[in-house]
Amino acid sequence: MGARIGVGLLGLGTVGGGVASILLSPQERHPLVADLELIRVAVRDLQRPRPVDLSPEQLTTDPQTVVEDPRVDVVVEVIGGIEPARSLILAAIKAGKSVVTANKAVIARHGGEIAQAAAAAGVYVLIEAAVGGGIPIIEPLKQSLGGNRINRVSGIINGTTNYILTRMADEGAAYEDVLAEAQRLGYAEADPAADVDGLDAADKIAILSTLAFGGGVDRQSIPTEGISRLQGEDVDYARQLGYGVKLLAVAERMATSEASAEALALSLRVQPTLVPSHHPLAGVQGVNNAILVEGDPIGQVMFYGPGAGAGPTASAVVADILNIAGIRQASGGDGRLDPLLAAGSWRSCSLVDPGNVRQRHYVRFNTQDAPGVIGRIGGCFGDRDISIQSIVQFNASSAGAEIVVITHEVDQRRMDEALAAIRALPEVSGLAAHLGCL
Amino acid sequence: MGARIGVGLLGLGTVGGGVASILLSPQERHPLVADLELIRVAVRDLQRPRPVDLSPEQLTTDPQTVVEDPRVDVVVEVIGGIEPARSLILAAIKAGKSVVTANKAVIARHGGEIAQAAAAAGVYVLIEAAVGGGIPIIEPLKQSLGGNRINRVSGIINGTTNYILTRMADEGAAYEDVLAEAQRLGYAEADPAADVDGLDAADKIAILSTLAFGGGVDRQSIPTEGISRLQGEDVDYARQLGYGVKLLAVAERMATSEASAEALALSLRVQPTLVPSHHPLAGVQGVNNAILVEGDPIGQVMFYGPGAGAGPTASAVVADILNIAGIRQASGGDGRLDPLLAAGSWRSCSLVDPGNVRQRHYVRFNTQDAPGVIGRIGGCFGDRDISIQSIVQFNASSAGAEIVVITHEVDQRRMDEALAAIRALPEVSGLAAHLGCL
After folding, report:
1. Domain regions of chain B by residue span
2. Interface predicted TM-score (ipTM) of this complex, two decimals
3. Chain A interface, mutation test: which of B143, B260, B345, most A Cβ atoms within 10 Å?
4. Can you name the residues that pair with A273 across neighbouring β-strands?
């Protein structure tokens, strides 16, 4: 039995309650859990009934007293949102305490400022719960994959949209209908924008990219497209062509970058993407998340599990507290940090011009059902040296037809030129869909 | 830049060469890799050409000089086999050095002795590369999942057999033919027993179980069945019923166990098992591995990736060296250990009587094509309160028929009684196959 570690909890909602419940029932868990002592908990309302048994002295409505309590070694922030979370995290760091947070929004936007303050104070800020719920992905990126040159991190990191996409694919249901039911079931918020517009996934891929490549990028500049404009027929056509549609978040190293003093060029993006049905990400169903890491020499590894929920998220929070407790027992907490666990940035990264990003594309055109239209569309691609994997006509009738094209890899700029040329064809009445494709 | 860490390498085969190659090219990897210095390397033959550029002074044919070199902080053992690997690991520990090893055989058999010596000497013995090749699974079990009560660890942890099973399923090929080709391609050894008889998987599940449940079990008592008796028709019938056949290794907590001073009751086993096609493990193809961890409150998480190969295994070895280097920079290496990373046993575990293990079963009988035989077989199960999910007759002809039964969960003892009764039926000429079923 080592030194006891005092834990202060900011927030006692579903995740906070899950954390408290683990700390109060250490039996059958790692024995180090028994060394964690829940000291104080900041809540909004002292009178509200709680699922965990806490004494009145442990509860307070003033989070500052938790941060300042000298018995608290680690502050756990599970309030969410930007403020007061950001200020409380910085106050805890200033008070010499390590911080554990599940707050992706504050880390994606203020991670640099927070990391700098933590390094100056000699404390840890750990964020396993901020991405992928219970899935261990932050620690593996920081510790287990450090020998690799990481080339790409991609994944399904928003459970709400994956739930919607899974049901659209399984039932041929329309987006609006599934969203409404997801809201009724509590899988989607009343205001679903953060999920369905891809903003939550963009926060998370910004965090993963910082860890994978050693430096942050401007969160606001990440090209982000959600699923709210996705149409059921594209999910159906994709399936007929051997693909599933997933909301993928991607961070990848661009080919030209070299190890130098200059910034490492990255592409980050969030977009609905066709995934071949044999691809490991294609089988990720419902509210699950999965993150695929590609590097040299490891090849591909994937981490899969529940992307949200009180239990899984609490598991990740407790993992971080345990890591701090373990290293404190080894080091005595004298302010020297484990550089893997501390995970400071070690170089600058920048986003490339999206026009230079190469990938495969899925596009669907509404056309007249006229002879030669497939040839003319194919010609617009061929004229710009864009190779096509397939052109397929769906739903031909006197009213017109739909033509679906899947290209090989091409940069966005040339793709846009080809699309402009195709839209100018007299037989083409419009570009009905445009998705990425793995 | 922190203190440099001296690395001594025992063995320069494919994995050792991969490790050396990472250490000699730190660019684009975690900056801590640049703090690792390859000091000395023990090889069998000094004259053999090497893929990495080492000076003659770095090479020796005497592993003991590597272990004893005062500049060496971490000894990496990638010789394999039991001896001299075990003695060299113990000698390194005695010399006060941390050890990193990819040697599942020595850890599965002598892990207790080695862990005890390491704890006494205040050094780490890290084994990420021993299970799952490059997949981070040891570190997550030790560090990221410590807040959980682990209930089950199961997985596909032998790449050779999964390659064989994948080709049998995809091509309808016979076991012997695929094995011969796997040997020609270098995916299977000339003597394939360790892989196809499940011994390698049993070594690995013994190691995972020790970490998941906090104590070791007797390696030799793990019920182990390989794939060498598996017949192509069972792979085919399983597919028709919506299952794939995988060689699964399982370690699970038995229902009756309580947190007490007594040993925790576990079931460990290796056996060919039907996996429903929608299950996350069903999609694991070829030489890939995947490990599914189930716990409370996390639910299910899965780790997937390349289960073998020089690059992935070297990635895991370097991860362990980095972990030791990182914690040394935090603690100054004064002999206090991080209890998560050190991962000592904290309780005793024991294997239950296999007769008490409950699971679903797949059995195939050769029978006469007589009316009523399905009813009589069903009756033998029903008489013993064994629920059946399906009974299907395949290949009926005048020569006889094959009857395949998939049961619900039942303990092994009652299942054996039912099988004895069925074999005694005059219409049944034999039990042709008996596999597990998820």
Report:
1. 5-134+310-346, 140-306, 356-437
2. 0.94
3. B143
4. A246, A436
